[in-house]
Amino acid sequence: MDLGLDGKVAMVACASSGLGLGVARALVSEGADVSICGRERDRLAEAHGKLEALGGGRVHSQIADVSIDGAVQRWVDGTVAEFGGIDVVVSHTGGVVQGPVADFGPEDYRRAVDTALIPHVALVKAATPHLRPGGRVLMITSEAVRQPMPHNVLSGVARQGLLSYARNLVHAFGDSGTTVNVLAPGYHDTTALRGPSGEDTSAAAAEVPLGRVGDPDDFGALAAFLASRQAAFVTGALLLVDGGNTRAPV
């Protein structure tokens, strides 16, 4: 299937590893020109090299901490200077501190909102003037938006606001043909799950009905489809990508 992404320009936040890199790989492989950002220079350079080695679209990378509005704006400006415009925006953020509700006070929730919600808003706001008609906005959040997760309360609370923001963007962008969708991943085989020591994922896999954790490349393939011309009538959707782990009703 030709996704119609050849020559399109995509921005993928936090793409030096994990789900962001999986999305960037899928888009580059489909011929899109992809701009990625990350906070760590060495990891970003390594990701850039891996993407270029795929032999698809062009690659631009830039150091940017998405929690800093000015850094996001500079990344957008650098992308536009390199590629001339934007067709696809994939917003993504770092994780928040885990723990039960009793562990946290108001300042913890403020920090969680600044980490897990505001960067999405900042990227979309900065990219909007350059977003071509028929564009795609994809926001990567967490399965915590669909069911309470007692060990991850800050994530659930902070990310809930993203759903309301996305729904409002659906109407704001509708006349231009731009779609807005939210992806809610569960356990995936990333450093966020394995930790710095590369821990085994079997405990997480045991919780998932499919019996395994997700593959970032499978996640990337879904994101690429939503960015494609075939998904032009899919907007305002929240798609769980969790192997059936969420117990809340669909």
Automatic annotation (TrEMBL):
Keywords (A to Z) from UniProt: Oxidoreductase
Entry keyword Oxidoreductase: yes
Gene3D superfamilies, sorted: NAD(P)-binding Rossmann-like Domain
UniProt key word Oxidoreductase: yes
Pfam families: adh_short_C2 (PF13561)
GO MF annotations, alphabetized: oxidoreductase activity
Membrane-crossing residue ranges in chain numbering: none
PANTHER family named among the record's database cross-references: 3-PHENYLPROPIONATE-DIHYDRODIOL_CINNAMIC ACID-DIHYDRODIOL DEHYDROGENASE, DEHYDROGENASE/REDUCTASE (SDR FAMILY) MEMBER 4
Similarity comment: Belongs to the short-chain dehydrogenases/reductases (SDR) family.
Designated name of the protein: Oxidoreductase
